[in-house]
Amino acid sequence: MIVFDLRCSGGHVFEAWFGSSEAYATQRDAGQIACPLCADTRIDKALMTPHLPAKGNQRADTPPASIKAALQELAAVQKRALADSQWVGSDFATRARAMHDGEERHAAIHGQATLAEAKALVDDGVPVAPLPFPVIPPEAAN
What is the pLDDT of residue 65? Predict the structure, then answer.
């Protein structure tokens, strides 16, 4: 995994994790990265400070507690945001487009979309954004 500081065209800076530099470029070019503050998809890398590894005798095998706490809080925020959202599974792209086109009442939904579906939605101006953490479909939950 690699982490980048990103900046939207509105000047907001945020952090995002990617499997590789190529994965970042592919997602950026497809408009799949959106600013968490304004949903802008015109994203570029922001200036970053270099990561200097700790000396061999000072390395920790686990992330610092502050990072764990931040990730747990982000996961909790996503859970609260989805509390009033309906899981629509693989119908996400169809439903989101129908709401955008006025064929269906607007509602908070979340689900799955292929890369091609997500790109088409973004290209057509449908306001969608990827979630930072995977969602377990209701039928798969214990």
Answer: 82
What is the rounded CA–CA span in Å between residue 80 and residue 74?
A: 10
DSSP code for 140 = G
Closest CA to 33 of 70, 72, 5: 5
> Crossing angle of helices 115-123/92-100, nearest 10°?
10
Report pLDDT for 37.
Answer: 85
Judge contact between 126 and 96, C-beta under 8 A.
Answer: yes
SS3 45: strand
Whether the Cβ atoms of residue 122 and residue 30 lie closer than 8 Å to each other: yes
The C-alpha atoms of residue 116 and residue 94 are separated, in whole angstroms, by 13
Q: Which residues of the chain have pLDDT under 50?
A: none
- The DSSP secondary structure of 85-116, one letter per residue, reads SEEEETTHHHHHHHHHTTSS----EEE---HH
